[in-house]
Amino acid sequence: MTEDPATGERRQPVDPQSVVLAGHRRDEPTAREALRSTDPTVRAAAVGALARMGRLEPAVVVAALGDPAPGVRRRACEEAARLPPVAAGPIEEALRTSLGDPDPLVVEAACWALGEHRARSAVDVLSSVGRRHPDARCREAAVAALGAVGDPAGKSAVREACAGDRPAVRRRAVVALAAFEGTDVERSLRAALGDRDWQVRQAAEVLLAE
After folding, report:
1. 168 located within any domain
2. What is the pTM of this model?
3. Cβ distance 43 to 14 under 8 Å?
4. Burial level of 167, CB count in 10 A (0-12/13-18/19+)?
5. Does residue 140 lie within any of the structural domains?
6. Does residue 177 belong to any structural domain of this protein?
7. Number of independent structural domains in the chain
8. Sign of the alpha-carbon dihedral angle for 133, 138, 140, 146
9. Which residues of 20-56 are buried (b: 16+ CB within 10 A; e: fewer)?
10. What is the domain extent for residue 128?
11. How do residues 151-193 score in pLDDT, each as one tens digit?
12. Which regions of 4-116 does DSSP assign to beta strands (E)?
């Protein structure tokens, strides 16, 4: 038996596999009970199980985004990305907060979720992540999200990434430029034709030929 730290209640432990099965079997009570588990892998599985059965409410996602375990926060970002726009609306603020998460994988997942939902409210903070985050995976994800959103306010951050970041980030930034217009975009693409990385050059060539 395990003890709920909040209530002191003694409960039978639940393993992640049984929670995953609950999602397939549409066993909502088991999934909801698992949200209260002391095991973060069980809590993460519960978020996924509720999403599978279409019973993942915004309040549950927001709570999971604030979970002490990074694995749960990351799973919440991933499931938030798959929610329909109406359901995801209340989650945007929590996802923006997640862009400052200490775990880079959570930040990366939050960028993806915000890009999937074309979250214009997050353009400024995504631009900041794209310019300043110490982890290249996060910068790459932020640039991709800015391209998915396509708001002109994010264009300068994408152009900067084309010129001065690691190859993987530069490649992603060149692709993201497809979402923007202007002579400055063409200048960035033409500059990318001389990039040291052949994939960056190839991406620029494809876009300029369109």
Report:
1. yes
2. 0.89
3. no
4. middle
5. yes
6. yes
7. 1
8. negative
9. bebbeeebeebbebbbbbebbbbbbbbbbbbbbeeeb
10. 122-210
11. 999 999 999 999 988 999 999 999 999 999 999 999 999 999 9
12. 10-11
